[in-house]
Every structure is written in C-alpha cells, then in structure tokens.
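Hi again,

Forgot to attach this to my earlier email, sorry! This is the prediction with adenosine-5'-triphosphate bound. I've pasted everything inline since the attachment limit keeps bouncing my files.
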Amino acid sequence: MSTDVTQAPEATDVTDVAAAPPLAQRARSLAFAAIPYAVAVLAAFVVVAVLITVLGHDPVAAFRAVLTNSFRNQTGMVQTLHKWAPLTLLALAFAIPLGAGRFNIGGEGQMILGTVGAAAVGITMSDLPMVILLPLVLVVGTLAGAVWSAISAWLMESFKINEILSTVLLNFVSFEVLDYVASVVWSDPGAGGAVTLPIGEGAVLPGIGRPPMHTGVLLVLLVSVVAAVMAKRSVAGFELRAVGLNERASKLHGIRTGRVAVTSMIVAGALAGLAGAIEVAGVHQRTLEGIQSNFLLLGIIIGLIARGSLTAVPFVAFGIAVLEVGAGSMQRVSGAPVEIVLILEGLILLFLLMSDVATERWRRARQARASRAKSQLTKGAVA
Amino acid sequence: GCGGSGDDAGTDSGSGGDGAKKQVIAAIFSGPTNDADYNAVGLKALKAAESAGAKISFSEKVAVPDVEARLTEAVGDGATVVWTHGSQFYDATAKVAKNNPDVNFIAEYDGVPKDQPANVWTIDRQFHLGFYGMGVFASKLSKTGTVGYVGGLSLPFSMAEVHAMEQAITDTGASTKIKPVWTGDFNDAAKAQQFSTQLLGQGADVIVGSLNVGSTGTFQAFEGRAEGDGWVTAKYTDKAAAAGKHYAGSLEYDFDKPLADVLGKIGSGEEKGNYLLGFDTGVTIKVADGVPADVKAAVDKAMNDVKSGAVKVKLDTAKIG
Amino acid sequence: MLQMSGIRKTFGPVVALDGVDFTVADREIHGLLGGNGAGKTTLMNVLYGLYAPDAGTVSIDGSAVDIQSPKDAIAAGIGMVHQNFLQVDVFTVAENIVLGTDSTGLTAADGSPQTATQRITELSERFGLSVDPSARVADLPVGVRQRVEILKALYRGAKVLVLDEPTTNLTPQEVDDLFSSMRAIVDDGMSVVLITHKIRETMEVCDRMTVMRDGRWIATVDKADTTADDLASTMIGEVAGSDADAAALAEAAQVALGEEDLGEASLTHPLPGASEARPGGGAADPVAQPPARVTVRGLTVAGPGGKPLVDDVTLDLRPGEILGIAGVAGNGQGELAEALTGTRTASGSLTVDGDELVGRPTATWLRSGVVYVPEDRQRDGILPGAGITENLVLGSHRTRAKAGMINWRAARAEAVEAIKEFSVKTPSAATACGQLSGGNIQRVILARAFAHNPKLLLLHNPTRGLDIRSTQFVYDRVRNAAAQGCVVIVISEDLDEVLALADRVTVAYSGRLVGEFPRGEANPYDLGRLMTGVGA
Amino acid sequence: MSEFLTLTITAMVPFLFVAQGTMLSGRAGIFNVAQEGLMLLGAAVGYIISLKAGGNVVGIIAAALAGAVVGFILSWATTSLRLDQFVVGLALFFLAGGTASLLYRVVIGNDEPPRIAPLPELILGQDAMVFVALALSGFLWWWLYRTDAGMRLRSVGENPKAADSLGINVARTRMWAGTVGAALMAVGGAYLPMVFSGVYADGIVAGRGWLAIALAFFGGWRPQYILAGSAFFAAMEVLAQRAQVSGVGIPHQFVSMLPYIATLAVMVFALRWALVPQFLGKNYDRESRIVG
Ligand SMILES: Nc1ncnc2c1ncn2[C@@H]1O[C@H](COP(=O)(O)OP(=O)(O)OP(=O)(O)O)[C@@H](O)[C@H]1O
Ligand SMILES: Nc1ncnc2c1ncn2[C@@H]1O[C@H](COP(=O)(O)OP(=O)(O)OP(=O)(O)O)[C@@H](O)[C@H]1O
Ligand SMILES: [Mg+2]
Ligand SMILES: [Mg+2]
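Structure tokens for the complex follow:
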C-alpha cells in the first residue's frame, strides 16, 4: 500500500536512483498524469448527462454547478475548505491504521465521540475564557475520539477481535451515545432534532476573512503536513509501514508490532475526534444528530484513492470536497433529482480507478514495444 | 485565507432584477420530496407559492451539516426568500440570515428562539396541540386501555407530544395508559414494525405513530389482525391508502396557508415574526371512515376546544423513558 | 519429448528470459542449473502457464501446445513443484492433493475423499512419498509438505515433473529419499526437471543438465560428457577464466560439489581469510585465548507440551569465533536461533560484552549488535512490498534516525552502494524486494546484516538456494566479520557448510546441543551419528 | 410460536441473506462492502416489481438479478482490472443506493406509495423466505464443505496462487461468487418492504448492510456460525426492544446498545471461531511475486 515505495522513479540503471529528475520534467509528467483523471471525470459526466437529459433536465446547468460552485466566489471556497477539513482528518484516520494493515471503519463513531467530548466541555464550562476553553474543547474532543478507538485497539490486541467488526459495532453504539447526549443531557428544547445547547463563546474557533473561514482549517493543514512528514521520514512512519508489509519480519527486526498497530488505531481515533471537535467549535457550535455526515465513507475513499500515501490525502480530499460541495447544489440549480449526485460520485470513483489501469496498461504496452525494438536492434547489430 | 481579490460577486445579482417584486424562493428539505410525508407537504406548499407567482427552486435530502452550504449558495444565486423545512435547520438558517440581512428567511422552530435575527420568520409547529387531539382520539379508540406511542428520536417535541396526550386523557377523565417507545430513527420502518408488534403483544390496541416514512412499519404490524381489532394513526399526511383497514386517521399538517401567509407578510415588509401552527392554521386530525362516530365527535370537540382556547395544552418537554 | 524454444519474458525493464531453448527427453532427469536470478524459475513458470511469455513456443512430443494457464499445463501433462510451496494451509493433505481435479469423491465421514485417499496412498507407496492424507498441511514439517507437492503433480498424471529447488528444504536423508522417488518416477515413464544449485546432486541423479546464465541458455550436456568441475565453471561463466576468481570460488564449488572429505580438505588447505588471520582463532590457536565475548547460560525455551523446545543451552564464544551448529531440521534450530537473537521469549542468560540481554526487547538486542539472518527469508526476512532501500534500513531504522527522522537520501545512496557490493540483481534500489529472485533476496538480507557491524551474527541456513558465487561471497563476508571480532553462529542443515566455516562444531538434537568438535577434529561420520541421535 | 421467537426470526432473515452473501463472496476472496446499497436496490426493485408485476416471487427474483448485475460489476472490476475492492465496493454502494432512489422516484413519482402484499405465511406462522434463508445456510455449509466446487471456492479465498497452480480458474470463481453473493444481498433488501413496511423508502435499510458485514466477521466467515450469529444478534435486538416496551428504567439509548455490546462480548469469549479468509479483499495477480 505504500506509494512512497512503489511510485519511486522508474530507473533502469541502479546508479541514478538517488538523483531526482529535474523540476520541469516533474511538472510535465505531473500534468500528463492528470490527463487520465480528467478523462475519467469527463466520462462520468457524459454518462450522467445522458441520464439527466433522459429525465428531462438540463445537464449543462447541472455540471456547471458541480464544477464551479467551489470556485466562483469566496463563499464556495470557504464551504469547500470547511468540508475539506473533516474529510482530510477522517481520511488520515483511515489511512494511518491501513499502513499497519488495520482497517479502521470506526472514524464515524470516533468523530461522534469527539463532538460529544468537545460539546460537553464547551457547554458545561462555557464561562471559561477562550484561551483556556478553546484548547480544552479541542483536546477533550481529540481524547474522546482516541478513547473510542482505543476500545477497538484493545479488543484487537488482547482478544484478536477483528477491528472491522468492532469499529462497525462501536459506530452504532456511538449513535446511541450522541442521541442520549443531544436529546437528554444537553438537549436544545426548541430544535426539532437531536441537537445540544450551544457551546460557550470562548469555545468557538475564530474565523478569518469574509465569509469567515474557521481556523480549524489551518489546524488541519498543520496536522496533514505533520502527518505527511512523519509518514515519509520518521521512524514511526517507517515502522507503521513495515508492520503493514510484513508483521513477522518487523517483529524480528525489533519493531513492537502490537504497539505500532495499537498506536496507529489510537492516533486515528484522535484525528477523527479532532475532526469532531473542529466541527463543533468551528461549524455548528454544538453537536447534533447527523453531524458525522458521510465523512467516514468519503474518508475511506480518499484514503484508498491516495493509496495510503498521507502526502496525497489532503489533495485527494480537496478534490472530493469540491465534488461534494458542487454536487450538493446541482439539484437546486438544474432541478435534476438529487440521486443523480450519488450516481455521479459512484461513476467518477469507478472511472478514476479504471483510468489508472488504462494508463498502466498503455504504459506497459509502450514499454514492451520499446524493449522489443531494442532487442531487435541489438540482435541486428550482432548479426 | 483563500485569496483576497474578490468581493462577493453573487449577493446582489438577484435584487437588481425587474421592478416587480416577484419573490424568488429557495427551499431546503431534509428528506426526499416524494416521501408522501413531511417533505411532500413542504413541496406542495412550495408549488402552491409558485402557482401564486413566485419563482422557486429547492434542494432535498439535505443533511444538517450541509445545510449552511446550501443556504449560502441559494442566497448567492439570487433567492429573495429562503425556507428551511424542518426545525433541525434553524441554527444554520439563523446563522446565514445574520450574514445576509438583505434576504428573508423562513425557518421552523418549536417555540420562540432566542436572538431571532431581524430577517427571519419562524413557524412554530406546536406539535403538542395536535397530539392533545390525538390523545383524545387514541384514548377513545382503545378498548384495552393501553395505547402505544411510537416515536423516532426522543426529542423534546416528542416528549411534549406524549405529555399532551396524557393531559388529554386526564382532561377527559379516562384511565388510558400510554406506553411510549422510540425506535431511534423516524424513517426505519422495520424497527417501527417490531416495536409496534411488541406493543400490540403487550396489550396495546392503538398505536399512535409520530414518525416519518417509518410509519409504514406501524401499519404493517397490524398485518394478520382482524378488522376492528386495533387501530393505528399517523402524522403529517393522509396515509389511508398505505395503511390498510386498521387505519384510524392522521394528524395532518398543511403548509400551504402558513407559507402563503408568511410570504405575504414578508411582501408587505414584515420581515420578522413567529407564525403559530395550530388547528386554525392548517393542522387537522382527519378521522378515517371506519371510526365510530362518537370517537370522531370527541376528536372534533377536542380540536375545537384547543382552537377556541377552552383548553390550554401545556408544553411539557420533561423527559420520559 | 518436451521442447521450449525462443522463450522470452520481461518484467517491466527486467529481461528475465532472453530467447531460451530447452528440451527434455523421455524418461530422463534433467538438471537445470544457473546462478541466482538466471531465470530458471521464470522459465519453468512459463512452461507451467503461470507466466505468459513475450515470445517463444512450447511443444510436446513434436506438436505445439498453447499453454495459457496451469490448467492447460496440467492437461498437457506438466506438473510443477514450486520453490515456495503453493498449498492451502487450512486444508488437509488429501484436500490439497485432489483440489481442482474432477470428481474427488468426497465423503461425509471425515471430510476427506475416500477414493482419492486410496489413490494417494497408492501413489505414495509406489514412489516412496509417505504422507498422512488427513493431516492439515499447516501442521506439517517442510519435508512432508514437499512430498505433498510432488504427490499433487503425480496425482494429476504428470508426464513431466518440474522440481524447483526441492532439496533446499530437505535434510540429507530426505534428499536421498527424494532422489530415489525421482528414479521411481522416471522408471514409471515420466521425465523430471530438477532445478538446483548443488552440482553434487545433479551429478548424482541427473542424466543431462542445462546451464542458464542471465536469462540465456548457455549449454546442455550429458552427465557422461562432463565433470563436476566443468559444470561449476560453466555456471560461473567467463569470470572463472581468470585464475584469481577461480581460486576464490573453489571452496564454494567444493561445497556445491559436496565432496565427502571436506572436513579434512579444510584442514589441509587453509583457505584465504581463514582462521589464522582472526583474533580469536578458535581452537586452532589455543595459546592466546581472549575472554568470551558472548556467554550463554542455561538458555531455555518452554514448549507447548512441557518438553522444552530449546533445552538448557550453554556456550562461551570468543571474539572472532565461528560456531557451527549442525543438525537435522526440526531439532529446535529455529527456536534456538530466535532465542539466541532475542526474537523469542526464553529463560536463562545471554550476555554480549557483559550486557545481559535476556528479557530485553528485540530492539535492545539489535542495538547491542545481535543480528539475525533468518532461515525463511520470504516470511521473516523482508518487507516484500517495500523497496530494497527500505528493506536495508529495517532494523537499523531507530539507530540511524536523528530526532526520530530517517535520512532517506543517505539511505538510498547506501542502498545503491550495497546493491553494487553484494551484486544484487535488480532494476533499481526502489524495486520491491519481493519481486527479486530467491537468491537476490538473500543478498539483500545479508547486506543488511553486515551493515549492522554485528557483534553476534547468527545465520540460519545462510546459503540455502544461493548459487556458487553467492555462497562463496557469503563465506568471505562471514570470515571477514569474524576477523573483525564478531562472534558468528552458523546453524545449518548443510553439513558441508558447517564444516567449511566453523572453528568449532556442535550438533542440535532435540532442542539440546550435543557434542563439540574443534575445527578439523569433526568428521562427517561422527557428526552424522550425533545428528541422528545415535552417538554421544 | 411465541412472539419473541417470531420477531427474532423475522429480524434475522434479512441479516442472514446479506451476511451469507457476504460470506460467499468473501470465501472466494471478494470483500463486498456495497451491502447497504445492494439492500436498498433490492428493496426498491423488489417493491416496484412486486407492485407492477403483482407478485412477491417476481419481485424477489428481479431484486436478485439487480443485485447480480452490481455483483458482476464488482467482481469484474476487481478480478479483470484488479481495482481496489474497497473503493469499487463503496463506489457501487453509491451507485446502487442512488439507482434505488431514482428508480423509485421515476416509477412511483410523488404519489403515496401503494402497499404490496406481504409475504404469505407458510407454516408455523413464518413466511417462505424464512425457510429459504435457513435452507440457504444449510446448503451453503454443505456445498462449501462437502463438494468439490465448494472446496475450490474456499481455496481461492485462502490461497489463490495455489488454486491457480492447480488449474482452478480464480477469476471465474470469484466472478460468480461475487455475483451470487451480491444477489443474495439484494434479496435480503427485498425482504424488508415485503415484511416490515409494505412500501419502499430511502430509510428502510438503516445501516443493516454494515451490520451484515460485522456479522460475517462475527460468524467467522462460516455459514453455520453466521446463522447462529445472526440469530443471536436479532434476538438481542428484539430483547432490547422488549426491554423498552416493558420499561426498564434506563434510558432507551443505553438499552439499544445491547445488541452491539453483546456481540462484542461474545467475541471476547469466542476467539476460536474468529477466522478470516487469508485473501479476503486482496486481488490476485498471477505474475506478481508479492502476495496480496
Ligand atoms: N514476477 C516477477 N516480477 C518481477 N520480476 C521477476 C518476476 N519473476 C522473476 N523476476 C525477475 O526475473 C529474473 C529471474 O528470476 P528467477 O526467479 O527466474 O531466477 P532463478 O534462476 O529462479 O533464481 P534463484 O536461483 O535465485 O531462484 C530475476 O531478476 C527476477 O527478479
Ligand atoms: N467429522 C466431521 N463430520 C461432520 N462435519 C464436519 C466434520 N469435521 C468438520 N465438519 C464440518 O466441516 C466444516 C468445517 O469445519 P471446521 O470447524 O474445521 O471449520 P474450519 O476448518 O475452522 O473452517 P475453514 O475450513 O473454513 O477455515 C464445519 O461445518 C464442520 O461442522
Ligand atoms: Mg528460482
Ligand atoms: Mg478448516
């Protein structure tokens, strides 16, 4: 799963492995690499356009909404970044344990616990000044997420209970926890849903710009840079990958594999918890039923599209955030039924993956042709 | 930050249009508008507004975390009135309203919110009023003296509904017992079916549903029972076709008039207010044909008493269960 | 009867086979020889339909066959025993054997096929391959699993049986059994292709041999027309033309040839870089004995049934000393190796330069200079999906890090050096280690081991599956490390190897170390008796 | 039959279909994660076809076919193209779920949905699908452990390379196991409107697809334990509901946690059966030396 390893430059001569290709060449190859993805998105749009037309709506308006919504003004951008933040954290929460070969499907429950922890502090200590309250809210949310994933990690290490099983079940438990907190403990009587009371003023993440973007976005940016650097360069990142690649060999070479796996799960829970805390402190100022949205699934998808590379996660997350924000407005703008969005997203995903395969096949075919030509040439020379 | 170049381009594009004060309404629905339930009722009202000359657009199946984005986009696209259908959207609506003082907002709220912005109308659904009538209805229908109440989430409004039913029973001097349960999901029909079956098994013979599309499960629980052996009621819309022979009626909500009224007030410059939903403004208990006449009479009387003020229904959100 | 011609196969930039021709006659045992990464496995995988060749044809009995998949190969009468067993661990022997054949006649009684069981028993008797059909293969020792693999092929009525380095996993007795089975198979009208690095084995059992090098066919010879030495030099190639290299390779060639008098040979012809040069000098130099660098006291690994897997092992090892531990596989060598390197919980004591290590985490052992080259390299030695660079860093990743960060640029540069120094055949340092041929994987592991500057180096079957040149290379490296004061323990089932390397030889038997012979006093006969539990 | 038993059995049936479908695909190495979407699609197709064609049997068959199409796409994309099983599964979850809603919208429109006839009772007050589900579990057990084809399928999930080397067509085995497995999942979805609600609604599945994945793990990917596990889980669910109906004095949110926590608790004491196919979710590439 480790891209850092498998995507290294294609060198045929051992000696030039250490040298990186020049920047211009890299930029160009990056641009070329983007073409298949663009084609994939386009293909998905074409299929969906047919569908929209058949249903009697205007596909052009629909797609204009999808693609431009994030960029046409600051509001779109802020909305996109507000989506990007939890998506990135949830994707990391999936990708980090994945590095160690563990599937954390519990990002949703961990995030919910994060919102509950954050809201609990934000509501009960609402009078504290911001310098104390805000950090406290974020820390408690993070810890709550970590504790939730620690349960799965503990079951996994001590009882060999598959983490997919335990995280899925704990997600369902977390819904009940949230329901209890939002409709019993700190319920907002006026809200027609399970919604808690608002958190104190001092617990709110300050915004910047107009419309305000909450500073949680910057926090997530920082977290993703740290995560990427740690994954690429740190001992911890290496051990994580090693455990995922071969647990036995890692153990024989001095890595405490159990500890690495458990840590990866707990870090994941902490990140998901932080996502919850940021949603509370930055967006909703409370926790509420449904606050987890579909961040878990999108996070998994992002983590997998990034092939576990933590460096790629924030970029992929941005792409998905643009799509999500844009797709959401499609119906209002074009009148096309809202289900089209799901179909579009599903197709884009499928085609993106397929474009990878197509590129790879094309590249291999070209390589094979080239190497055959070369061998013909050398044979000719000998003859 | 995200680039400092632009001033907000979209905001004033709508207001500069033709001189006529044609309203451009954008609505936000929480579920699918073809649910034959709460969202369908909303769409109907919106369509009515369209017939009355407004320009409309809407988003459905909007999750709470996404509503702010949908609202801002609607404003950006030139909506002059934005309506969020469902009180879970109030907070986001108020927030966006504060940022967009030139646009009018209609939100729903159970009660009167604190710090209601100057450009926000709220519609108070007062579910407890309707359920007072349902209390009379169910109590009269029950032969066993046990009525099951099947809710989704145990929200304050749901508590108020149960308390209002209890008040109705006390007021009518009956000794009917209410067994309230919450399935955890307004739309999970399977859970509703299971709970209803258990309630029926435990001696209840009337099921009062306070669900959305999950209500179909309460109907299904009567499958295999003889006609007349128990009754089931619903909320929001007439569900006679789906419910079958045990259907006693429904507490129906119609938003056509409330929406038209509020739009009218906004049109006449009244930008903030609280619109109360009650038996005089679109709420009604529609009793099915097979229901005994005395029951129907009692329900009608209860509705009239509430409407006239002869009966004061207490709003009690105290926790149960 | 079988003819492959012009076979070409590339993996990305790697040309694994370059126009190879290969023929097998009726009723012959055909040896396929060549260095690591020569393409032997690849050629046979092409034959078996596992790899689609870029070019080339296969014909059987004169008519061309189109082999797209193992199914076609099986239908064409080709059977193959793979270098790494391809078995379903949770299945029984019988299930593994009949899997995929038509109508296995499963019964409800014990979930194992009745008629099939009969046939398996019959086959195993006929060819001397005894197995228990109802045993779960995961629970079986390698020797038996090997037999299961052969039975799988025979059960399908193979006419040509390919054995890819079958002897690497076997004890000498088992090798003899295997060879007689092979004879029986040939007598039954089949042909066998035997891939091996052991020239002795080919000379013993093969009728003809083909030598490959660098993905090309080099020569095919009759046994009658060649000698072991000729074969060795053909395998090694042009380089052997120079005298210096030839001399350097002689010893490994001897091990490969498996000359019986090797014990003496090593006494009478001291080899370059051998004992005298070393500070410890082992038994050969009794005068100036420095104090022990590694002491082991009562090292014991508890076993599941009360009987310890490793039983009260006590050793004193001087700097520069090479201890050889011979033994038949399954006498607790694996557990002993792991206990001696801190990768398995054990009781007792082990000190390196006075530091007690038992009970400390593996990382501490590594930091104290204890380095382990495990036997099962695929499973225990590498991160198959990671590049060579990362594999070389494994184990030293903590010590080389500054502030918790690894300098990958430096690591890459080192890797490029190591690849050159250890002649690892790879397209790049970023190539996934799992893609390398068996022998090249071992080179990577050794490169990593020596880079640790070990104080105690434990090698378990270090040259299994290595070609002559690599074997010699390993020996030189081991002696070099010893010359610098490293204590070396070589655990090997290859008696020749133990005798060639060790200053002192002992035998693992049933979890204990029995007997002890200084260099030169050990002879294969005595050792053999200890190994089988007869002597001492 | 006692009400408790009847409720448990009916609650178990959809889980059983979906978890056994998950198991069947999984034993061949295909880890389907589109259950939630497949159940929705099954429910929508089952409902619509039952309504329009006037019979539950046709509805169930149509649902199975719709599921099979999705399963075929999953299997093809992961065996022929070797796309990541998880991502494709999630993409198909979106696609299937979206298609379900869209179909319903297009066919039924905005009207109040008519109810379809419930599944008729067969014997013991249980409908035919109960017996189909039980028979299916028994059949799968027999087929997996007592037939050659079953053995081949298991080998593909445990060690596809070994299977391949014995001439077993790994891709084909995975193709049909993935297809049939998905069809079963859709049937599990179709059961919902036929028994619990009479109509289709977007909220009808409510996470049961994800729970079915957990149940496949809970049952150690073996049909007999999946049957036991689904029954246990359903019983816990009904028990929790019973507790709420009778009123136990603890907030119902905590009572509702019972099935999930009980399942985890059982796992703590049942390490032994917690097996997972070795190649679950891993694509097989014949020419790659790297396993997985
Ligand atoms: N599946 C594969 N993917 C990539 N490269 C491969 C693959 N199989 C073989 N190779 C490469 O082809 C070359 C020949 O490998 P092969 O395994 O045939 O060698 P061999 O002669 O069997 O060596 P050994 O004696 O070490 O087993 C090597 O360079 C190897 O890295
Ligand atoms: N002697 C027997 N008689 C009847 N049935 C048996 C017998 N042995 C095993 N079985 C059945 O065969 C199946 C496999 O049994 P077992 O408990 O060994 O599963 P397993 O090997 O752990 O599973 P898997 O092979 O899937 O990993 C089970 O359904 C078991 O009940
Ligand atoms: Mg080989
Ligand atoms: Mg078994």
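Chain D is about 70% helix and 0% strand. The pocket of magnesium ion (ligand 4) is lined by residues C 90 (CB under 6 Å).

That should be everything now.

G.
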